[in-house]
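**User:** Everyone, produce a chain:

**Assistant:**
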Amino acid sequence: MTTKNLTSRRITNLDFIRGMAVLGILMINSIFFGLPFSAGFNPSSAGHNGILDWTIVIISDLFFNQKMMGLFSLLFGAGIVLFIEAANNRQHPRPRLLSSWRNFLLLVFGLIHLSLIWQGDVLTLYAICAPIIILLYNRRLSTLISLSVLCMFLPVVLSFFMQFLVDSQGNLVEALRDSDASSTWNIGLGKYWFAEKEKMGDLVGLFFILDAFFRALGMMLLGVVLYRLNVIQGKLDIKIYRKMALFGLLIGLPITLSGTFWMISEDYSPGIALVGGIPNKLGIVPLVLAYIGIFSLLDKSISSKIASRVRACGRMAFTNYLLQSILGVLFFTVLFERGDFTRKEIVIFVVVVWAIQLLCSKIWLDNFRYGPMEWIWRKLTYISI
């Protein structure tokens, strides 16, 4: 099968959802570009100056925070299966090995991105999770669903128990402190919660890593399930997507909103820093499912001119994700001083980048078959094996 044939058989619904995800993830990543690390978890620590900024905080919590990364992770899991199936259709002798090599390349790209551009890279995380997906993707659906639920539940349990290990001021409880006063083990929440801090404690750092890993893996496994059920391909009856959207919003929004208002009512107290994030975690799956329903409906109903631009962003998701990091670092660190922004100013940056990517992705793909990074990734994948 030729490359042209493969391109013509792209799953446009998947491209549309991926485009919305890569655009949406910038709303959260830009907070980390422009503000102290703590602002991504404790909005009261930086970036607020009036009711408009706090309105943006609530909207971000409800519709973007952890949901867009969840959607991005889900799509990545589905993409692994899609790639292996395509390799099988081309009668490649070792499709799983090819996928493993492809994700090793992603790990290299991610480490470069992590070390040279931005420390919030997710490509490395996805590449680390990828071998598990490659190993398990064709297991029974009940097994994959059970593993997904387990992975999504573990961060909730970790958040609950971790809260007992820090005191009401955000410090590591005295019983766990090292005799070496300078040890980073002794630090509690640190920069995770306080803008003036430069480090977080080792224990909190470990929690942060495990939390991200299990959430990503859980959503990637869910992505495999939804791909095998033909959900994210947009092939099901329109009524199913409407129900996904309705019930996902009805379940996910109240759960997430309860956590946001709880944190605000407690003035983002360090005493509930970790446990207060549990409602947001519980809202991830229903809201991601709602987004799949909503975006699948939009892909079929909105103007083809608009839909084609969103799909183009999705086809160039790798390039656009890296470009967002480059633009964010250049704007918030090189041109201006990081931390000296309000959230409404950051939203202006986000909207400008959205406009650039919606415009330029379509123009690029009207002239080239792949995005720049997609082309490099593809060439390295097939040249080597």
Notes: Confidence is low (pLDDT under 50) at residues 1-8. The first helix runs from residue 3 to 8. The radius of gyration is 21 Å.
